[in-house]
Amino acid sequence: MNAKANFQLPEQSVPFHNAKKLLDAYSIALETTTQIQTLIIRISKNIVFLKSRFENDVHPNTFAELESLISITRYLADEFNNTFDVQCEKYQNSVTQCDAGDLLEVYGLAHEVHTWFSSTIYEIKDELDAVKNSSTALCDLVFASLENLISIADYLSDNHRNTFKIECDKYQAEWETVKNG
């Protein structure tokens, strides 16, 4: 009896991606968060310098709300930097597969984090304007470097947020197709 069995394996219903794609997503999220973290640290140092340099020219609480906003943003940057770093280490030598839902999770979180950064950086920029307007003893030139750093952080956080939104939408569509199809 030489009967041949003719069978086909069922088609893969869930498209899988390799772990490298997941590692790349976490690495990008880590790198972009590190960029914002670095700028926030520089902004904080500039505020400390301004406070110490002009302590006799401004009210002691002039920078309080600005420092609080910077502290919040720095906390977020530190927290999510650690989160993304742990995930990078987890997938560094991994051979597991992932699906669109896994990638959607990474890009969705990165998008949310950079949306938060954009919000807090906008508030920092707004508060700095209030400090400038209330500090008649300080000229605009004193704030120039600080304003530039805040503008760079604002630009990068918006740019990263938009990039992550595009990736998020792409994997959301793929995930919906898999779930419905």
Fold topology:
Blueprint: E1 17-18, H1 19-53, H2 64-91, E2 97-98, H3 100-134, H4 144-180
Helix pairs in contact: 1-2, 1-3, 1-4, 2-3, 3-4
Strand order of the largest sheet: 1-2
End-to-end gap: 41 Å
Radius of gyration: 23 Å
Poorly predicted regions: 7-12
The share of residues in extended strands comes to: under 5%
Largest sheet: 2 strands, antiparallel
Kindly state the percentage of residues in helix. Answer: over 70%
Basic shape: elongated
**What is the overall pLDDT average?**
89
Characterization of this structure:
The two termini are 41 Å apart. The protein has four helices and two strands; from the N terminus they run βααβαα. 75% of the residues lie in helices and 2% in strands. It is elongated. It has a two-stranded antiparallel ribbon with strand order 1-2. With 181 residues, it is mostly helical.
